[in-house]
Amino acid sequence: xxxxYFLTYMAIGLGVTLIVFFWALNNGQFKEQxxxxxxxxxxxxxxxxxxxxxxxxxxxxxxxxxxxxxxxASAAVIIFALIHGS
Length: 86
Description:
Number of strands: 0
Helix content: 55-70%
Structural class: mainly alpha
């Protein structure tokens, strides 16, 4: 049976989701809800691009690693279920 693996996979996914949600709350991602609905209607010029800081590059790298780990965990669960399902 692969139920414990599935439940572990779901618990890890829920934990990561809650971590990302609380990170977004702490960084103010949801503060300007009234202004956000009109952003698509304004044709504002693009700000000049600046070189990303070291922290931003590190954050992007960590997010890519987490995405790769999530996809590999999904693939592992699916492969395990297909191999041991019969």
